[in-house]
Amino acid sequence: MSRTKAAGDRGEAETAKYLRRKGYTLLASQWRCRFGELDLVARDRRGTICFVEVKLRSANSIGLPREFVDGRKRERLRAAAAAYLSACEIDAPARFDVAEVYAENDGTLRVEYLEDAFA
Q: Residue 115 phi/psi, 5° resolution?
């Protein structure tokens, strides 16, 4: 496994823990289809399906992680989300969230969670 993949998996695992602490139910992780991958899919306490894009950055990185979710990436995420909802036969409100995961100098991870990030 590449170093980048391992770091990304660690960021997704930390985000999953964060979501569970906030009362979310995890439905899927690294769900793949022909349009791409959904990092995490969760249901919040109100029943909304949350498609969570996880972006990991080191403490020294330039720019905010959310800036790397550009228009093209958003379109792929929307297509993958539609495929997920169809494949799982889910009819519920949905939104797109971004989890910014920062790798601190001491090795810990910090999650900044942006609900409805595409609005």
A: -75, 145
Q: How do strand 36-43 and strand 109-114 relate by DSSP bridges?
A: unpaired
Distance, in Å, from the CA atom of 119 to the CA atom of 116, rounded to the nearest integer, reads 6
- In this structure, the dihedral spanned by the alpha carbons of residues 80, 8, 5 and 68, taken in order and rounded to 10 degrees, is 60
What is the tally of helices (H) and strands (E) in the chain? Answer: 2, 5
Q: What is the pLDDT of residues 8-48, one digit of tens each?
A: 788 999 999 999 999 999 999 999 999 999 999 999 999 99
Q: Residue 53: which of 113, 2, 119 has the closest Cα?
A: 113
- Residue 82's pLDDT band (boundaries 50, 70, 90)? very high
Backbone angles phi, psi at 59, to 5 degrees: -60, -25
| Sole residue written with tokens 């790397």 | 68
| Residue of 55, 83, 76, 80 whose CA lies nearest to 67 | 55
Asked if 41 and 25 touch (Cβ cutoff 8 Å), the reply is no
